[in-house]
């Protein structure tokens, strides 16, 4: 207690850390203000001419910090002339924070979209490109067009990257000085670029500077779900139906237990016996039944943990995921590892084939690749520790331009959900009667529809904004502040769109926020509250809760229930007490800490994968950019020659006693020629001399192969073969890494650290894959038969492969065919796999 008192005293004396940071920045704001008369006196042409002047100063060695006051003052003046919007001082402050690579926390309605223009323009002066990352295509288009007027006035090019664009359109978008787009599109383009077969088709430039809008949503909420590009893996769907049919025979508690906190389902011994009986297998845990066991676990999850119209809906005979954070539908996105198919079997809709991962990355690792990253949101302070630890981003809270006068009432807590909803409806009706607009926040689609039905019965006109009609969300949310309007909205639908109060609403008390349940994260609750009280407007908020709500039931219901029972609560009577609200906040803190631990652990494991991905992608980029891979191929030849020599030429054994046949076969398997190991050629041989002889003969054979095509075409062939080999083995490696990660937790039972074991085994697997890449590349190059020149053009014609873009564990983007290029082999040519058979009778069947 004494330490706390001392801390409070020091804060009063010296100010909080946030206040000290802002104090250092105010002189920069003054410098920008001082320049305002200079630029406001310029003609449009003179103002626009400042961009090349600022670029020139940068190229001559001035830092962006030196250019900041001029650049910000230029943008402010251009904004006034094009949009009639002038950055106020707090927005200038926010722009400085963003330029410095921090997160600016600014309340809803403080004009974050305009703030971004300052830092984006300044950093775009480098000519390396600057990105603004938004949460959906609508905002990317809107902001690129709206804010683009400022940039275009100042002579900068503006592009945007949205779903459905072709590669050429994307390339043009990224080539612009300033590019708006969604987190998904930026991430998937990075992965796609690392699957391309020529550098001209790459769309992205280097990742220089990015401002992430709604940074908490993208870097925290979506951090647990990696972006995945996958291709179809042929598997029968019969097993899903078979396993689904046995789940109704399994009873909760008797056959399986559910852990709602960990969101997991576990079979009991009786459950294992019942499953074995139903599936007619002797031992479900026999290694040969491991796939069957996986299907049983996923089917159990689908039935016990996933609820229709909460986690997903059925639309057009498909299972469509509902984003738990925004309440939006995510068509085309699929849960991974067979869970989506298990849900399709549960709902008796058509089961789509599983996909195999071709490329993957988490948002955490993607955004950490930018040279400089910053972000903005209305709610980041509660996650400040995570932003610092994971991304090395400091959160700076920007004061509001006008004082915040919204009144946040204590939570009203009832015994049952029915009492809670009845009370909420009465408050909505009362406020609607006097004309105050009300925004009702719900955590799921079914609750929004339940409340809508109750209001219909009471004759109250209202709008429902949930995943089923998100197309109209911007319009609905923009009108939510008009007199007498009632809007029911799931969670955070409509983020990025301001609610402006209509005529006469200020006098009535402004917009009232009514929350029908607390979210696991305080930040999400604060986002809902933040819809009201913008720019000094009046407003109010209240959350209606019940002891039956998941958060209270799972994380603190007994304690709160005990307090309510001791107070002798009657049916329909709420309790409003700050002690109860604090208990709920403590429950939320526990969940937030638990979720942070999960994200941190996932990142620790993904960091291993990320290091490997960087090595592979670097290899691919080198293969695309180098004029010739010949030096790399010759180095591979020497390395494989040494491996063969040291494997079969025993150090202390005379050459005549070596296993010459096996040695000769190994050389043939790798290089497709027979080495002369007759008696006269063995004298003076040791492993080193043998390695040089194999390498020299292999190089000579390769030189002959090179003569069969013009040099440029042969170099192109080398590139295609190497890239194909890398992609094929990398895809298999991703699958192996998934399997390794799945079972690694069990190592803790053997007193081993799962992460250390994972790192060690993953490294060994990676080394093995690198060796296989070299081996397979050489095998194909030494065996490939060169087609007649008329067919050479066909050699690298792209083959179309269906790909889908998704978030792992469930949140993802739509399916769309993309072309991948593959080297063609003639039907009568030797098979590139090295079997010695003709292609048509081997892999080309």
From TrEMBL:
Protein name listed in UniProt: Protein translocase subunit SecA
Gene (UniProt): secA
One of the GO BP terms on file: protein transport by the Sec complex
Compartments, as annotated in UniProt: Cell membrane; Cytoplasm
Assigned protein family: Belongs to the SecA family.
Keywords per UniProt: ATP-binding, Cell inner membrane, Cell membrane, Cytoplasm, Membrane, Metal-binding, Nucleotide-binding, Protein transport, Translocase, Translocation, Transport, Zinc
UniProt cross-references to SMART domains, sorted A to Z: SecA_DEAD, SecA_PP_bind
Catalysis performed (reactions): ATP + H2O + cellular proteinSide 1 = ADP + phosphate + cellular proteinSide 2
GO cellular component, one term: cytosol
EC identifiers of the protein: 7.4.2.8
């Amino acid at each position: 207690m004494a330490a706390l008192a001392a801390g409070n005293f020091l804060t009063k004396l010296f100010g909080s850390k946030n206040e000290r940071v802002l104090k250092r920045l105010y002189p920069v704001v003054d410098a920008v203000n001082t320049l305002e008369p200079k630029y406001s006196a310029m003609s449009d042409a003179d103002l626009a001419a400042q961009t090349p002047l600022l670029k020139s100063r940068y190229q001559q060695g001035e830092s962006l910090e030196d250019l900041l006051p001029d650049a910000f003052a230029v943008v402010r003046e251009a904004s006034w002339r094009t949009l009639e919007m002038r950055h106020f001082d707090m927005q200038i402050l926010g722009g400085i924070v963003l330029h410095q690579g921090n997160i600016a926390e600014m309340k809803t309605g403080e004009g974050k979209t305009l703030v971004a223009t300052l830092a984006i323009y300044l950093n775009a002066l480098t000519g390396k490109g600057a990105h603004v990352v938004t949460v959906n295509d609508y905002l990317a288009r809107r902001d690129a067009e709206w804010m683009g007027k400022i940039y275009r006035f100042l002579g900068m090019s503006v592009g945007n990257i949205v779903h459905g664009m072709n590669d050429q359109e994307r390339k043009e978008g990224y080539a612009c000085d300033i590019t708006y787009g969604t987190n998904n599109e930026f991430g998937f383009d990075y992965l796609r670029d690392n699957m391309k077969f020529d550098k001209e088709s790459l769309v992205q430039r280097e990742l220089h500077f990015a401002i992430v809008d709604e940074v908490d949503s993208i870097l925290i909420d979506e951090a647990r779900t990696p972006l995945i590009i996958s291709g179809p893996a042929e598997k029968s769907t019969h097993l899903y139906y078979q396993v689904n049919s046995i789940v109704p025979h399994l009873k909760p508690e008797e056959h399986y237990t559910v852990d709602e906190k960990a969101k997991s389902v576990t079979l009991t011994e009786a459950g294992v016996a019942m499953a074995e009986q139903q599936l007619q297998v002797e031992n479900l845990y026999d290694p040969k039944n491991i796939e069957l066991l996986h299907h049983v676990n996923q089917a159990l999850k689908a039935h016990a943990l996933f609820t229709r119209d909460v986690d997903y809906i059925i639309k057009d005979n498909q299972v469509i995921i509902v984003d738990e954070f925004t309440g939006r539908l995510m068509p085309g996105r699929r849960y991974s590892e067979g869970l989506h198919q298990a849900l399709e079997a549960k709902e008796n809709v058509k089961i789509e084939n599983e996909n195999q991962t071709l490329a993957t990355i988490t948002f955490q690792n993607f955004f950490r690749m930018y040279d400089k990253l910053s972000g903005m949101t209305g709610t980041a302070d509660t996650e400040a520790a995570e932003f610092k630890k994971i991304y090395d981003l400091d959160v700076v809270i920007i004061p509001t331009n006008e004082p915040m006068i919204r009144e946040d009432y204590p939570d009203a807590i009832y015994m049952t959900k029915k009492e809670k909803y009845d009370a909420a409806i009465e408050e909505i009706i009362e406020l609607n009667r006097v004309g105050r607009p009300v925004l009702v926040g719900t955590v799921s689609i079914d609750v929004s529809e339940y409340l809508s039905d109750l209001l219909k019965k009471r004759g109250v006109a209202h709008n429902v904004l949930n995943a089923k009609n998100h197309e109209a969300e911007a319009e609905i949310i923009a009108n939510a502040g008009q007199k007498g309007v009632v809007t029911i909205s799931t969670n955070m639908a409509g983020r990025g769109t301001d609610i402006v109060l209509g005529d006469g609403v200020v006098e009535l008390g402004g917009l009232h926020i009514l929350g029908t349940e607390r979210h696991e994260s305080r930040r999400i609750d604060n986002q809902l509250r933040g819809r009201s009280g913008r720019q000094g407007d009046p407003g109010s908020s209240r959350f209606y809760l019940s002891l039956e709500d998941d958060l209270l039931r799972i994380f603190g219901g007994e304690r709160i229930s005990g307090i309510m029972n001791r107070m002798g609560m009657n049916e329909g009577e709420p309790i409003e007490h700050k002690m109860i609200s604090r208990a709920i906040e403590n429950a939320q803190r526990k969940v937030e800490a638990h979720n942070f631990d999960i994200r941190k652990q996932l990142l620790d494991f993904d960091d291993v994968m990320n290091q490997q991905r960087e090595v592979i992608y670097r290899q691919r980029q080198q293969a695309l950019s180098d004029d010739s891979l010949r030096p790399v191929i010759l180095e591979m030849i020497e390395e494989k020659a040494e491996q063969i020599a040291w494997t079969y030429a025993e150090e202390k054994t005379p050459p005549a006693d070596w296993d010459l046949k096996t040695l000769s076969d190994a050389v043939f398997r790798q290089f497709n020629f027979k080495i002369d190991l007759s008696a006269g050629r063995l004298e003076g041989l040791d492993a080193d001399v043998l390695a040089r002889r194999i390498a020299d003969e292999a190089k000579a054979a390769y030189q002959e192969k090179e003569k069969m095509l013009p040099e440029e075409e042969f170099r192109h062939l080398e590139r295609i073969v190497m890239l194909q080999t890398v992609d094929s083995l990398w895809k298999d490696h991703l699958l192996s890494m998934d399997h390794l990660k799945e079972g690694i937790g069990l190592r803790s039972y053997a007193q081993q650290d799962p992460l250390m074991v994972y790192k060690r085994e993953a490294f060994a697997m990676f080394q093995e894959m690198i060796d296989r890449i070299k081996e397979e590349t050489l095998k194909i190059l030494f065996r490939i038969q060169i087609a007649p020149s008329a067919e050479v053009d066909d050699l690298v014609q792209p083959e179309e492969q269906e790909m889908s873009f998704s978030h792992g564990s469930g949140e993802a983007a739509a399916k769309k065919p993309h072309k991948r290029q593959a080297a063609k082999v003639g039907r009568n040519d030797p098979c590139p796999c090295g079997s010695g058979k003709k292609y048509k009778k081997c892999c080309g069947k």
